Amino acid sequence: MTVVEFSTVVENIAPTLRPAAYNLTRDSDDAKDLVQETLLKAFANRDKFKTGTNIKAWLYTIMRNTFINHYNKVTKRTSTLDTTDYFQYFPNDDRMVAYNGATGEFAAQDIEDAVQQLPEEFKTPFMMYYVGYKYLEIAEKLKIPIGTVKNRIHLARKELKQQLRVYAYGI
């Protein structure tokens, strides 16, 4: 599909995106922004569209994912924990007592030992993820598929959970 054909098809479908965007956002201005961002992403990634597939579904998927990513970003940014009521009703709760730091040092040492015991193929992606790399970045640096990265991190976490099960219910 040429760029002109792609543009024509997308422009014809664009008005049908607005009601769906409004259903997601419940605000007309946000819906317009969502449609605009969806179209921008569609044009930027038109090479990823496979000719012969349903372009309308492809656009709706882009729009839904854009909305979800934006929603997650906003809720993560604005989430706070208000503990004032807790302290008001439970001022002498034993769960709020600060314990000796030595216990934490033992736990930290046990965690470090458990991580060091992981097989190298699990430890490397796990530690990269732990320090802040995204799955795609890890996959690119290690030159392995992203699914393999996710699987290895999952298996590393599962193994660590098994090795550190003594900490599951506190000390």
How do you describe this structure in short?
It is built from 8 helices and no strands.
Explain what the structure shows.
Residues 109-160 form the RNA polymerase sigma factor 70 region 4 type domain. With 171 residues, this protein is mainly alpha-helical. It has helices at 3-25, 28-44, 55-78, 84-89, 101-117, 120-131, 135-142, 146-163.
Give me the secondary-structure category. Answer: mainly alpha
Number of domains: 2
- Could you give a short account of the major beta sheet? none
The poorly predicted ranges are none
Write the layout of secondary structure elements.
Blueprint: H1 3-25, H2 28-44, H3 55-78, H4 84-89, H5 101-117, H6 120-131, H7 135-142, H8 146-163
Domain RNA polymerase sigma factor 70 region 4 type: 109-160
Family: Belongs to the sigma-70 factor family. ECF subfamily.
Keywords: Sigma factor, Transcription, Transcription regulation
Keywords for this structure?
mainly alpha, Rna Polymerase Sigma Factor, Chain: A, Arc Repressor Mutant, subunit A, 8 helices, 73% helix, 0% strand
